[in-house]
């Protein structure tokens, strides 16, 4: 009998900061209903309520490839784990498949919600946040 165990806990290079967003897919955030749509929410640069929190570098919300069900919405911290700088945030490419760091050039695959680096110097993926969909409201909290 072989028993495998993993006692180590994954720890992101991105520091833990509070995240709380309520996104309404009927009104302000309806653009996220399209497959491969994305939006980055940054405190002070996005229309957010006083109680909403956007993590370390902002929150990248992405509607992944598929049929638009709740399993296809993903959220990542927008800060690059190589740079670990709140002012250096990834940008989604024109195809809506990759997030690219403008500083180090690392390309992260976000199409299926994993956020792993596929090109560049990064050794870890983008920090993920849980997404819960209730009707046309997305709740992102960490």
For the CA atoms, what is the radius of gyration? 15 Å
Biggest sheet details: 4 strands, antiparallel
* Average pLDDT, all residues: 89
Structural class designation: mainly beta
Strand proportion, as a percent range, falls in 25-35%
Number of helices: 0
Order of helices and strands: EEEEEEEEEEEE
N/C terminus separation: 38 Å
* Share in helix: under 10%
In total, how many beta strands? 12
**Widest β-sheet, arrangement of strands:** 3-1-12-11
Shape: globular
Q: Would you identify the regions where 5 or more consecutive residues have pLDDT less than 50?
A: none
Please specify the SSE layout and strand pairing.
Blueprint: E1 19-24, E2 38-41, E3 53-54, E4 59-63, E5 73-77, E6 91-92, E7 98-100, E8 107-109, E9 116-119, E10 128-129, E11 131-134, E12 137-141
Antiparallel strand pairs: 1-3, 1-12, 2-4, 4-5, 5-10, 6-7, 7-8, 8-9, 11-12
């Amino acid at each position: 009998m072989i028993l495998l165990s993993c006692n180590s806990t994954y720890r992101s290079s991105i520091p833990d900061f509070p995240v709380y967003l309520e996104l309404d897919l009927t009104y302000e955030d309806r653009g996220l209903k399209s497959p491969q749509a994305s939006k980055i929410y940054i405190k002070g640069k996005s229309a957010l309520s006083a109680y909403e929190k956007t993590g370390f570098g902002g929150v990248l919300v992405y509607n992944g490839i598929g049929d638009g069900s709740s399993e296809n919405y993903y959220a990542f911290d927008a800060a690059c784990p190589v740079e670990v700088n709140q002012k250096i945030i990834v940008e989604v490419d024109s195809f809506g498949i990759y997030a690219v760091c403008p500083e180090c050039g690392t390309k992260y695959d976000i199409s299926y919600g994993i956020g792993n680096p596929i090109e560049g110097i990064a050794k870890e993926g983008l920090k993920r946040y849980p997404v819960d969909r209730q009707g046309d409201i997305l709740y992102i909290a960490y």
